[in-house]
Amino acid sequence: MALAFDEFGRPFIILKEQEQMTRLRGLDAQKANISAGKAVARILRTSLGPKGMDKMLQSPDGDVTITNDGATILEQMDVDNQIAKLMVELSRSQDYEIGDGTTGVVVMAGALLEQAEKLLERGIHPIRIAEGYEMASRIAFEHLENVAHKYEFDATNIEPLVQTCMTTLSSKIVNRCKRSLAEIAVKAVLAVADLERKDVNLDLIKVEGKVGGKLEDTELIYGIVVDKDMSHPQMPKQIEDAKIAILTCPFEPPKPKTKHKVDIDTVEKFQTLRQQEQKYFDDMVQQCKDVGATLVICQWGFDDEANHLLMHRNLPAVRWVGGVELELIAIATGGRIVPRFQELTPEKLGKAGLVREKAFGTTKDRMIYIEHCANSKAVTIFIRGGNKMILEETKRSLHDALCVARNLIRNNSIVYGGGSAEISCSIAVEAAADKYPGVEQYAIRAFADALDAIPMALAENSGLQPIETLSAVKAQQIKENNHYCGIDCNDIGTNDMREQDVFETLIGKQQQIMLATQVVKMILKIDDVISSSDY
Amino acid sequence: MAVDKLFKDEATEEKGERARMASFIGAMAIADLVKTTLGPKGMDKILQSTGRGHSVTVTNDGATILKSLHIDNPAAKVLVDISKVQDDEVGDGTTSVVVLAGELLREAEKLVNSKIHPMTIISGYRMAAEAARNALLEKVVDNKQDAEKFNADLIKIAMTTLSSKILSQDKEHFAKLAVDAVMRLKGSTNLESIQIIKKPGGSLKDSFLDEGFILDKKIGVGQPKRIENAKILVANTAMDTDKVKIYGARVRVDSMAKVAEIEGAEKEKMREKVQKIINHGINCFVNRQLIYNFPEELFADSGVLAIEHADFDGIERLALVTGGEIASTFDNPESVKLGHCKLIEEIMIGEDKLIHFSGVQMGQACTIVLRGASPHMLDEAERSLHDALCVLSQTVNDSRVLLGGGWPEMVMAKAVDELARRTPGKRSHAIEAFSRALAAIPTTIADNAGLDSAELIAQLRAEHQKEESSAGIDVISGLVGNMAELGISESFKVKQAVLLSATEAAEMILRVDEIITCAPRQREDRM
Question: Would the pTM count as exceeding 0.90?
Answer without folding.
Answer: no
